[in-house]
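FORM 7B: Structural annotation worksheet

SECTION A. Query
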Amino acid sequence: FRQVRRVLGLTDFFDHFDELFDRIQEAFFRELDEGAGFRISIGRENPFRNIQDETVIVAQYRLPGRYEGSMTIIGPIRMDYRKNIGLVSYTAEALNKRANHE
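SECTION B. Predicted structure
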């Protein structure tokens, strides 16, 4: 039953993702240190009730024309943190380098 509730919570979260996007940006990036570029929230640290049994890794990156983008990984609390943080960091750095060259 716990897994069913977890899946339903995630489904509900993603069903309303467009409506929540601005709130996600605000909640996850308001506390970022200058230059940190990413944030990790584990379990109950998440500001959204529907994903409080998950881990969220969010990274910001720059785009040409002074735009910014973000990528998010939402997964189980027992995820491979080293691998996922590495993937997010590498991708954000590559996008930042590309933005600096254009």
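SECTION C. Observations
Strands lie at 38-42, 54-63, 67-76. The first helix runs from residue 2 to 15.

SECTION D. Sign-off
Analyst initials: ____
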